Amino acid sequence: MATQEELPTASDGPQDAETRDLEERARPFRALYEHWEGNQWNPLDIDYSVDAASFRALSDDDRRGFMWIFSHRFHAEFKVATILAPFVTRAPSYDLQVCLATQLSDEFRHMQSVLRVYDVVFGIRDFEEVRAIADSNMDIVASTLYEHLDARVKPLETSADPDLFLQATVAYHLIAEGVIARTAQNLAAGQFAHFGSFPGLTAGQRLVARDEARHIGIGVSYCRQRMSEDRDHATEVISELVEEFAELASGLLEAALAGGMNSQVLSGYGVEPEGFQREALRLWQIRLRSIGFE
């Protein structure tokens, strides 16, 4: 269990060589499970006292910007935590099933971590109040992404079709976590310093990023396995998602610009919507190379 002294400091970035290797290189599921066992952490160990003081010192506009970022964090963690269960039940092998079970545990730990930030830093403890605030900050880009993710994962509730499992894995592990969430983490990390001193948030971000690198690695390893078993068929199945994501990325940028989200995205992530899209597409190419898709 990580102690407060072992937690990352504010000077640490959200990623390092280990996390990049975890999310870009396929490996046996047993190795991913062993990594999970050796890297446990407790969100209750993170000291947010400095963060709480920094938040109280912000202007009203900066507080609203901060809350907008964490509304996205709340919805993102709540969504991925509550729709993951069908992956566990439909996993085609025990080793993969164990990895996905550890991921399910991680996702709820991340959710608890976000709720603790709301409690200790923002002074909001009631879950329904947190959800109401997050709902009030929901935008067309986020809601559209969740609709697409639901559409790809929901079929697993009633079908054991391995191709549906592959497409759901691409949608959840490679796109939702490997592209959208990782883009938000990469860009938001630098924004904490813009708002002030937030060492607790920076430490938590670093730990979550390491967990999610392992989650991305689960998806990369499964997709790579399917590519090695029948490359032509797996490529055909995945191609549908590649075309869908290209259309989705274009449509979401148009929606963000039409919805006047420039200032929100710039305040929260340090770039305008076009910059967010560029980083997302860069990561998407990395994910595709990692699974051997050309």
Describe, in plain words, how this protein is organized in 3D.
The protein has helices at residues 17-24, 29-37, 49-56, 60-82, 85-90, 94-120, 127-136, 140-153, 162-195, 199-229, 231-258, 262-269, 273-290. The chain contains 13 helices and no strands. Helix 11 runs antiparallel to helix 13. The protein has one domain (14-290): Ribonucleotide Reductase, subunit A. The chain is globular, with a radius of gyration of 19 Å. Helix content is 76%, strand content 0%. The relative contact order is 0.15. The protein is an all-alpha fold and 294 residues long. The longest helix is centred in the middle third of the chain and has 34 residues, at 162-195.
